[in-house]
Write a structure and sequence with these properties.
The complex is a heterodimer. Helices cover about 55% and strands about 10% of the residues of chain A. Chain A is an alpha/beta fold. Chain A folds into 3 domains: about 80 residues, Four Helix Bundle (Hemerythrin (Met), subunit A) (Up-down Bundle); about 230 residues, 3-Layer(aba) Sandwich (Rossmann fold), CATH 3.40.50; about 170 residues, Signal recognition particle, SRP54 subunit, M-domain (434 Repressor (Amino-terminal Domain), Orthogonal Bundle). In chain A, strands 3-2-4-1-5-6-7-8 form an 8-stranded mixed sheet, sandwiched between helices. In chain A, strand 7 and strand 8 form a beta hairpin. The longest helix of chain A is centred in the C-terminal third of the chain and has 21 residues. The radius of gyration of chain A is 26 Å and the shape is flat. Chain B has 12 helices and 8 strands. The radius of gyration of chain B is 20 Å and the shape is elongated. Chain B starts with 7 loop residues before the first helix and ends with a helix. Classes of the chains: A alpha/beta, B alpha/beta. Chains A and B meet through helix 2, helix 8 and helix 11 of A and helix 3, helix 7 and helix 10 of B.
Chain lengths: ~525, ~325
Amino acid sequence: MFERLSETFAGVYKKLSGRGSISESNVREAMEDVRTALLEADVNHEVIDTFIQQVVDDSIGRQVTKSLEPGQEIIGIVHRRLVELLGGSAAQAKEAAELTALGVPAPMAVPLAAEPGILSVSPGPTIVMMCGLQGSGKTTTCGKLAAYLKKRGRSVMLAAADLQRPAAVEQLQTVAAQVESDFPGGARVTFYSEPDKVAAYGKAVGVAVGVCQRAVEAARKQGIDTVILDTAGRLHVNDELMGELQSIARLVQPHQRFLVVDAMTGQDAINSAKAFHERLEVDGIILTKFDSDTRGGAALSVKHVTGAPIKFIGVGEKLDAIEEFHAERMAGRILGMGDVVSLVEKAQEQVSQEEAERLQEKLAKGEMTMEDFLGQLKALRRMGPLKHLLGMIPGVGAALKDAQVDDKQLDKIEAMINSMTRKERDKPEIIDNSRRRRIAKGSGTKQEDVSQLVTRFGMLSKITKQMAGMSAASKVKAVKQLGAANAGMGGLPGFGKGSTRTVSVKDRFKKRKK
Amino acid sequence: MALFKSIVSRLRKGLEKTREVLTSGLGDLLRGRRLDEALIQEIRTKLLQADVGIQTTNRLVEGISADYKSGKLSKGEDVLEYLKREMAALWPSQDRSLRIATSGPTVIMVTGVNGAGKTTSIAKLCSLLRGQGKTVLLAACDTFRAGAVRQLEIWSERLGVDVVKGQQGGDPAAVAFDAASAALARHVDFLIVDTAGRLHTQDPLMRQLTKIRSVLAKKIPGAPHEVLLVLDATAGQNAMRQAVEFSKALGGESPAGVPAPANGKGTPGSESAGGVTGIFLSKLDGTAKGGIVVAIKEATDIPVKFVGVGETPDDVEVFDPESFVEAMFG
C-alpha cells in the first residue's frame, strides 16, 4: 500500500531538490501533486486540505525557500506532519524534526512510540469492546487479539455479543477454538455465549447488552485477564443499534473501545468514524485488510476525526496476522523511506540470534553451503511475500512500483536445491553435466537454470567472504556489485537478512530508547 | 425487466429510505442556484466525496464546465439532469438485467473480498427470485471462514430453499461440483454459488476461484451464466483493483448459450468479457455513495446490476442509474 504516494513524494523531492532556490509557488505547486496522490489514496478531502495547509505554513515559517536543500527540508516537514497525523505525539514529531535537522536520516530520527498494545487494568478483567460497520472484520480481529494476548501470557475470554448476523456466534466460537489449538502454550482462551439468546438472530436489539454484562461477570469470577466483546456490525446511521452499543458501554464500562475499520474504505470513512466516536468515545482504532493493495488513506482520515490512536493493523487471513501500528514507521513507508525496524523484527521472528551468528561465521569463512542457503531462503519466505519485504527497505519502495517481483523465481530455486543430493549441496562445484541433467529433470527446470544457480551461488559466496572484513561503506559497494551480478535472480536481494548488520540497527533503536 | 415489475413499489419505498439518510446531498447544493465556477468546484468536491475518483470526476467536471461555458447549462438543476443523462448513457438498461440460461439452471456465482456482504447479498437475490416463483438452490462454497456455511444455512431455512454444503475446510470446488449436479437433477431455475471472501492480492485464493468456475462450466455448459462481484459501497479507489483482479481470475470463454450483452459495447480485450459480469453494490443504506462504480464501468465495462439497501432479505433493488444519481446528489 501507499506505493503511489511514495512515488509522488519521491517526485516532489526530485522536483524541489534539483533547484538552487525555490519560491512559495513552487511549494504550492508541488503540494498539488501531493493532493492528487492523497485523493487517489482515499484520504478524505477535508483531511487533505488541513494537511497541505500545515505543510505549506510550516515551509513558509521555516523559510524553506532560503534553505540550501529545500527538497530535503520539505520532505522533513511532510514526514513530521504525517507522523503527527498518523498518531505520533507532537513531542515525538518535534524530536524527530530536531534529529533530522542534525543530519540524522529521517527513519532513524524518529523515536519509538509510547508502549503499544492493549493496556491491562488491575484488578481485572480488562474489558475490550469491539465495534464497527458490518464486514469490517471484527470477529476475525477478536481472534487475532486473543492470539496476541495469549502469546503474552494473558488469558482471554471472547464474548459473543453479535446477535444480529446469522452464525456470528458460531464463527467466534470456532475462532476461539482455533486460537487455542493453533497457539499452544501461553494463557488460555475461552469462549462465552448464551445459546438461548441466539435463536432470533437479527430480531432483537438490546439483548446483547445483558450478554455483555454477564460475560464480564463470568470473566471476573474465573479470574480471566481480558474479556473481548464482539459486538454486531452496524451502520452508523442505525439509531437503534448505535443506542445498543451505548448501553453496553454505559453498563459494562469497557476500558478500551476499539473501532475496527476496513483499510480499503473510501471517503465515507470519515462519516462512520465520526458517528461511532460521537456515541462511544472510541479510544483505539484497528485497521483491517491491510494486506490488500489499498493505499489505505482511510487510516489518515479516521485518525484525524477521532484523534484515537491506531493500535493494530490486520495483515492476513491467519490468526497471527496482526501487527502493532507504528505511526513513525508508517510515515516512513509512505515517504518511501522504508521500514527497517519492522523488517528486522520480522527477521528476528524467523532467525534466532545464535543462528544468525553461526551463519555469519560460516559466511566469513566462505563455508556457506547450498543447504544453509536453502534454510535462509525458507526463513525469508516465511516473513511474507518478497515485494512486501523489499518495500520496507529504504529507497526501494518507489523503485519497485512496476517491478514484477516474482515469488515463483524462489520456488524454482527451492525446487532445484531440493533436487540436489546432500553432497551436491555441500560442494556445488561437483555438479557436472549428468548431475545437472538429473537436477533439472527432478526440479522441472532447465539445465541452464541449474548452471546459473551454481555460478551465482559461487559468486555470492566469494563476495560475502570478502565482505566479512569490510567497513560498512565498502559493504554497500560490494552489495551493489553483487546486485549487478544478480540481475534476474529474483531471490537474492533479501539474502542474509537477520545477519549482524541489520540486527545492529535494532540495537541502536533499543539503546536510544533507554 | 418484467421479471422484477411486481416489486417496483416496494423498491420505491426502499429508495425513499435511502434518500432520507442522504442529508447532505448535492441536490440541496444545486437546487435553486445559478451555475458558476464556484459551484462547479463544489460539485467537483461532492463527486470526489462520493468516491467517484479523481480521473472520472475530472472528466465529468470538464463536461459540465464546457457546457456551462457554451451556455447549455445555467442552473443547478441542469447539472443534475446532465449527470443523470451521463449515467443513463453509461449504463444502458439491457446491461442491468440478469443473464439467464437458455435452458437448464442458471448459475450465479457470487464473489468478493472479505466482508463485502456476499452471503447477505445472496439471501437478497434468493428472496428476489423466490418472489418471482423461481426455484433456487444454494451452494455453500465458503468452506474457509468459520460459521460461513451455517450463516448461509440459516438464511436458506428462513427463505425456504435448499443448500448444498461440504465440510468446513473442505475443497470448495468439490462442493460446487455436487451443487451443480444437484441443480441439474432437481431441475431448479437458479443455482447461487457462495464463495469465500478473498483479497484480490492473494494469488492462490484467486486461482481457487478459477477452479470453481471451471468445475461449474464442466458440469453445466455455459455456467456460470452470471458472475457477480459484491462490492461494499464504502469501498474507496481500491475497488477498481478488485474489479480488475476478480475479472482476471474469472476470465474465460464467453458463456455459451447466453446472448452477449446487447449494447454492442463488448470492447475487445475488455476485462469483463467472461470475467465478472455484474456488480452487486452492497451497504448503500449508509452514508457511502459507492461512486467508484462509475469509474469501474468506464474502465472495465462491468455494470452494476443490484444494490443492497438494508439488513433484511427484502432490502434489494435492481440498479437504476437515475436513482443512483439522485441518491448520490440529492
